[in-house]
Amino acid sequence: FERLKQGLSKTRDSLVGRIDRLVLGKKEIDADTLEGLEEILITADIGVQTTVELIRTLEQRLSRNELKDGAALKEALKEEILKRVVRDAAPLDTTAASPFVIMVIGVNGVGKTTTIGKLAARYCQQGKRVVLAAGDTFRAAAAEQLQAWGERAGVDVVRHQEGADPSAVVFDGIKAAVARKADILIVDTAGRLHTKVNLMEELKKVRRIMGRELPGAPHETLLVLDAATGQNAISQARLFKEAAEVSGIALTKLDGTAKGGIVVAICNEFRIPVRYIGVGEGVEDLRDFDPAQFVEALFQ
Ligand code: GDP
């Protein structure tokens, strides 16, 4: 918990630190206070839609005389934020199939490979057999990086040469996972966004191949988003949601950014469970997203 708290420190300063300065000691809440609060929420990347909803709810609670002072306002905000992040929260259950196939998608640089490496290490530690497939064949560095993570975690990595057909990698990955009786297969994919249409088409193709080779696969389509990109993460979520049947989200780089409010926006606006959050580069820095703990760490 302390590590999570430390990871969220910049967001806590920019969000809750400013809220404290605005409301603490206030004996009475008025429209100006709520206006100030609205501005803080928006600049902390909670998003316009979610901010408007939160402020409206707080106004209603104020008119019911529930918010007597600044401390009550802060507490009410915390409650309302928790309600919105807890709604669709669900950890990823990988026991539903074997091998359980996780297709990892997202734009280059968001932390896809790192997240896959962290997941591989974590599942290995749990005694699960893991295979990785290097489906991003456009960048040799991507496959190499995945291989390095795989070696560190002690898991097999299926990779082809640079420029190979990603579908062939997926095909071999599934074959290897089945032959080795793996519990989990994690498939990396390309993320060159400048060819948006091609990228989405390619993801669909990879998905089709998976389903053909192993009915039901992928069992999870995990979208990785970089929290530090703030509103960009929201547009990426929108784009991938439309094109790629996203079933879960991992939000990386929450450490080092003041834009952690984005977690609230993503939970509230997309109705896709946030499965993991990244709070550092180390292997232990990928956390299951625990809404209550997250809100507690933010507000403490
Ligand atoms: P990819 O292009 O999406 O595969 O991105 P990478 O996995 O190569 O990650 C890009 C950079 O982000 C690397 O330097 C990672 O160490 C870093 N990174 C990934 N996740 C986190 C995180 O949760 N916190 C921090 N601070 N850095 C991260």
Automatic annotation (TrEMBL):
GO molecular function annotations of the record: GTP binding; GTPase activity; signal recognition particle binding
Protein's membrane topology: Peripheral membrane protein
GO biological process: cell division; SRP-dependent cotranslational protein targeting to membrane
Transmembrane segments: none
Keyword Signal attributed: no
GO annotations of cellular component type: cytoplasm; plasma membrane
Domain SRP54-type proteins GTP-binding, residue spans: 273-286
Binding site for GTP: 106-113, 188-192, 252-255
Keywords from the UniProt entry: Cell cycle, Cell division, Cell membrane, Cytoplasm, GTP-binding, Hydrolase, Membrane, Nucleotide-binding, Receptor
Subcellular location: Cell membrane; Cytoplasm
EC number: 3.6.5.4
Catalytic activity line of the entry: GTP + H2O = GDP + phosphate + H(+)
Assembly and interaction partners: Part of the signal recognition particle protein translocation system, which is composed of SRP and FtsY.
Similarity comment: family membership: Belongs to the GTP-binding SRP family. FtsY subfamily.
General function of this protein: Involved in targeting and insertion of nascent membrane proteins into the cytoplasmic membrane. Acts as a receptor for the complex formed by the signal recognition particle (SRP) and the ribosome-nascent chain (RNC).
Annotated protein name in UniProt: Signal recognition particle receptor FtsY
Native species: Geobacter pickeringii
Primary gene name: ftsY
